[in-house]
Every structure is written in C-alpha cells, then in structure tokens.
Amino acid sequence: MGTRKKVHAFVRVKPTDDFAHEMIKYGDDNKSIDIHIKKDLQKGVVNNKQTDWSFKLDGVLHNASQDLVYETVAKDVVAQALDGYNGTIMCYGQTGAGKTYTMTGTTENYKHRGILPRALQQVFRMIEERPTHAITVRVSYLEIYNESLFDLLSTLPCVGPSVTPMTIVENPQGVFIKGLSVHLTSQEEDAFSLLFEGETNRIIASHTMNKNSSRSHCIFTIYVEAHSRTLSDEKYITSKINLVDLAGSERLKKSGSEGRVLKEATYINKSLSFLEQAIIALGDQKRDHIPFRQCKLTHALKDSLGGNCNMVLLTNIYGEASQLEETLSSLRFASRMKLVTTEPAINEKYDAERMVKNLEKELALLKQELAIHDSLANRTLVNYDPMDEIQIAEINSQVRRYLEGTLDEIDIINLRQIQEVFNQFRVVLSQQEQEVELTLRRKYTLIDKNDFAAISAVQKAGLMDVDGHLVGEPDGQGFGLGVTPFSAKPGKKAKSKKMFKEQLRPSTPPPKPVAFEDFKNERGSEINRIFKENKSILNERRKRASETTQRINAIKREMDVTKEALNFQKSLREKQGEYENKGLMIIDEEEFLLILKLKDLKKQYRTEYQDLRDLKAEIQYCQHLVDQCRHRLLMEFDIWYNESFFIPEDIQVSLKPGGSIRPGMVPISRIMSLGEDDQDKFSQLQQTELPEGPDSFSFYNAKVKTEQKHNYLKTMMGFQQAHRK
C-alpha cells in the first residue's frame, strides 16, 4: 500500500465588479483567506457573535485563467494516473459560482476549455510520449439526478436505452456502476465527441442565481490501462480519473425556485449535506463507521473519498458581500476536506491465464535444466537466467560460423543454450531460403507447380511446352536456344504476334515508382491534371492564409505597442493632474491620436481575422478535394499496375469492354501512398503558426460533428412531426 497523504484543497474566486475588499483578504502566500464581518450594532454592545474567520488552504486562485487553474490543480493528478494512481478532482460550491465553467469550460472558445477537456488532451499527449507501453483509454459519463442514476452516453447508437435501472455495486476491486456504458477511445477527437455528447444530455434549469444552473451531479471517468511492450505481459497497471462536477447548493429564498426546480434543489442540498457528513466522519480519526451509503453521490465516490486515490478539491466561491454566508459555508467544507487523508497506491494487476502458462513453461525448463546439471558432474557454474539479446546474438554468430566451416564445434553449457542454438539454426535457414527465393525472383518468373491454372495460362501463351519446359530454356548444350513447343505451328501470323507480344512483357514487374510516373503521363494523365490543379489552388490559399496570419500578428504587435503608449500617457496625465470641463475629461492631442489609432487597428484586426477564418474554411474544402483526387489516382494506378503486369493475356481479354470481368474487381493489395512532398510538410508547419495552433483541431472537429449530429436529429424529428400532422 502507498503512504497516506492529505487531500489538497484549492479555492477559486469568481471575478465580480462588486468584490468585498473590506471583508475578504488574501494572504501574502496566496494560501489563506481571511473573512471579516462588522458587528451588528442593532444587537447591542455585548455581542459575542463571531466576526472573523481564517482559512488555510493549498492555494487561492483569484482572477486566474483556465490555464493556470489546470496547471495548479489537475496536471499532477492526471500525470500520476498514467503511472497507475487513481485520481479525483471535485468542484464544489454554491450555485452560479463557476463550477461547471471550471470543470468543463465553454465549447465555443478553445482557450476557455476547462479541466475535463484539458485532462483528456494531457492523457493522449502522454500516451504519445510512451511508445514502450500499449495504453488503452475508456470513458464513461454518469449523472445523479434526484437520487437516480443516468448514463449521459446512452443516446449513442451503440448503447441504446436500458430497461433495468443502474445500480452501485461494491466488490474487492472497488465500487462500480452496474449498467453504465464504458466507451473505448483511440484518439483525442473521439474522447471530445463523447464529452460533448454527454454535455448536451445534462439537465439544466434557470433561476435568479444562474441562468444555466446544473441540476445534477456529474462524474466523468477516464479509465487507463497500460501494458508494457518490452517487459512481461503478465503485469499491467490500471487507473481511473474521476472528474466530478457537483450541483451547486442554493438557498431557496435567494434562488426563488418553484415547482420542479424546487424539488431538484431539495435533492441537491440533501445529497451535499450527506457529502459533508461523510467528510466530517473521514476527518475524525476516532470514527469507525463512515456513512457512505446515505446517498448515491457518496456511495459512488466511496473510492475517491479517503480511499486509494489522489484527491483534489476545488471550491468555487463568490467574492460579493451579499454571498458571504454561502462563501463561509463553502470555505468550511474546504477546511474539513483538508483533514481527510487518502492512501494512493499503484494499481498493478496480473493476467492470470498468461501467468499460469509462463509458470508451467518455466517449471518444465527448470526440471530439464536440473536433470542435465546432475548428469554433468564437472559443470557446476550453470546459468539458469534467461538469455539476453547479446547472448542470443553471440549464438547466432556461432551458428553462422559453424555453417561456413570457420568454427569446428559449439560449446554446450546448459539446456537454454541448446534450445537457442536450434532456434538460431532455424532462423539462419529461413533467412537463406528467403535470400535464394529473392535472387530467383530477380532473374526469373517463378510459378508454383501445383498452380494448374497458372501453368495452363503459360502454356496457352506459348511460353511452356507440354513437357513443362519453358520456351528459350537452355537445352544442355550451352547455346540457350530453347526447344520449340509442339503447339507452336508455323504459318499462323496471329498466334505468332500474340506470342511475340507476351514475350515483350517483362518477366519482372517494374518498380512501382517508375510505373507510377508512366501511369501519370498516360492512362492517369487526366486525374493527375485535376490533382495538380486542386493542389495548386490549395497551395495558393495556404499562401494567402500565411500572409494574412503575418498581417494579423503585425497588427497585434502594433496594438500592444499602442496600448503601452496609451497607458503611459494615462499614467502621466494622472500624475500631472486631470482637468475637466463641464464634466468631460480633457486629454492632450497625443493621447487622442493614440486612441484613434488603437480603434483603427482593432477594426483592421477584426477584418483580417474574418478573412483568415474564410480562408481556413476554403483550405479545408480544397484539402478534401486534393485527398479525393489522391485516393482516386492511387486506386486507378493500383488497378492498372495489377492488370498490366500480373494478369495473364487471356484473362485481360475478359477485362476489356464487353468482357465478363469489370475493371477494378481484381483482388489487389494495398500499395504505396503518395508521400508528402516538401510543400505539404511546409503547409503543416504553417498550421502550427495559425491562431490557437493544431492542438485545437480535434477539439473543434469533435464539437462540429456533435452539433451536426444533433441538428440532424432535430431536423428528422421535425419532419416526423410534420408528417404526423
């Protein structure tokens, strides 16, 4: 088991224009918050009500960007998850304090994405940096609404609605949700699509405190399983990251909730109260029983609260005086959470079936090893360890020298070496067979003697007689004139022309790069012309986009310089004294010109940015056309190459117009792809310089695909309703 460690608790303050500076103070180290409330004189001079509070935390995030929040709160938890440690990140606070914005962010703006999409990106980035491991990622999305469990990904076609309700089940491995769908994601874009799919299914409502208030608790879980490619397959590690977005507590007199929203608020406050009771019990070292089963939320998070997990709490609070009561309640919860300790440990598992097979094999080898060891009385230093790569390479060298005659004998030490010697004999023999076959294929066209169809086709073409001798095959006298087949009768010009044409056909197909150049100049010339035209248009659009990006960057730099000059003028004016005339501020001519210049630069920036967005859309469309042409060109070349060099003449007759076989239906294997030329590589390099960079592509692609899917479903539902009417 791992060492016990305390839960990390951070606080994020929602930005507001009415921040209570006199009541809320931050410590110099940004790790404490002091709250002060003035005494109510109406309650008399003798008033023992507490007016000052001080809360020690792991960090206070005030006016912090989404980047800083993730770096501070979540990055280390996600990084350790790929090493086998479970992690949980929970957002807690009153309604409207910014929990969902912190956890999920906004899908409209890539820079404002929250902890959840950033965690997915970090997981897939780290997977790319670990080529020695085969890592699989799965995700699930659970919603707890009015003490009922719902699968937010049940709308996917592969899942479908469930007849039986989901339940929380415990076993020795931990807590899991029976009936919750878990989805394999092989790339970042797929994970984002699942996230956006679940977000569209969440239950929200509007009240006076928040126009888009989450009415349920949501738990997005990332499951990681890593197998080593270099070590034994028996042992592997697993971990999971729970990203919890709690519904906000609310006071009914402030939110003004009614009807269904009132019922939801009651369930939310009740579950959060049970969560706080569980936290208090976990913080008390004398308590033996922890009330996890009081509600679905605490039961589902049993592993995360005080268990085998790296736990981080992010408390969202308001900074306004009117919300001070809720702020104190949230800070008390964060302080109690800091008293909770967890015991994170690496989750190592073993493949039982493979482990048994390996142990049985090892046991048999050891028995044989000991038998030989006993029979060889003079061999006391026997190495029982498996051979490494250096030892295997040395045995391979000895086998080759033994076959060449430069080594008289191979010294035998133990059973493992004997087995490896025989294994290397087999390796060397296989390599020599391949070399011989490759040499023959360079000089001759090899035909399998059991392939009667191929032999019949060659005999019909006049390249082989009935005795199985090839035309032109040496007759043993050294002249290489060959024997004329009996079927080749003189005087028939048509057949002689056919045989002459077949003999002109090369026995070995030309290299595909050479054949590809001939194909582009002849049969594929039209497709190649369209491909070049589309690529020329694509390069022109990319060039324009690059120039526009450079202009945008230049305008942005000039805007920054102008802003600095304007701020300097403002500070200079404030030091020298400000002048007013009839309530209007008087500024000098230089400051006025800077304001006009900044306004004009912003207008240019917006115009250029819009042009860049249009160009990016055109580039995407042109790239699609180029990819289509490339695919068509390769497919046509594949068909032409196989029909020209691998199909016998009599079968080619069937491929001609009016024949029994349609071109393109001949089974073929995949061939080389059009490699990226220097222009393609340069274009990809340009994309990294565009605003927000290539990291945002999968995020936006997943968002667009999800929106298209839901728009399509809405349209189809509209058509069905109109049809019913």
Automatic annotation (TrEMBL):
Any GO MF annotation of the entry: microtubule motor activity
Highest taxon of the lineage: Eukaryota
Subcellular location: Cytoplasm, Cytoskeleton, Flagellum axoneme
Coiled coil spans: 349-376
Secreted keyword on record: no
Described function: Essential for normal male fertility and for progressive motility of spermatozoa.
Protein name from the UniProt record: Kinesin-like protein
Organism: Canis lupus familiaris (Dog)
Protein encoded by which gene: KIF9
